[in-house]
Design goal:
There is one protein chain. By secondary structure, the chain is an alpha/beta fold. It has a four-stranded parallel sheet with strand order 2-1-3-4, sandwiched between helices. α2 packs across α3 and α4 packs antiparallel against α5. The mean pLDDT is 94.
Length: 139
């Protein structure tokens, strides 16, 4: 099973994990690393390394809230230490997180990362109310 680590600014990661737990239940091989204001980037890096170990698995997927932020940047810096069986995605949303945790048994981490990129794109929907003329309302 692929280990999953979720990280992001403030309570984003714990909140997303909590929402996922309500929908699909608690997850094994899963760790959450919030980046809070009092945490130095070096401490975040240490916690991310611990989380990768905690999540376990032969391969690991690290999901970040956004590219270019401190959680993402610190994760990228760790890649040489983590090895080739780690994938990093930025811009995670709830549908992608749930899919990561439910579809991680029969694929490689690279396949899962590719699959989740499409899920992230396709799960964002725009809803627009139709506009009506007054004449339309009379009919």
């Amino acid at each position: 099973m692929i280990g999953v680590v979720l990280t992001g600014h403030g309570q984003f990661a714990p909140g997303l994990a909590d929402s996922m737990g309500l929908i699909i239940g608690e997850q094994e091989n899963f760790a959450v690393v919030p980046f809070t204001p009092e945490l130095a980037p070096e401490e975040l890096s240490a916690r991310l390394l611990d989380a990768v170990r905690e999540a376990g698995g032969d391969e690991t997927l690290i999901l970040c809230d956004l590219a270019g932020g401190t959680p993402f940047n610190e994760t990228i810096k760790l890649l040489p230490q983590l090895g080739e069986h780690v994938e990093v995605l930025a811009g995670v949303n709830l549908p992608a997180l749930m899919e990561a945790c439910t579809d991680r048994d029969d694929v490689t981490v690279a396949e899962l990362a590719s699959q989740l990129q499409e899920t992230g794109r396709s799960s964002l929907s725009r809803f627009v109310l139709p506009s009506f003329d007054e004449d339309d309302l009379d009919e």
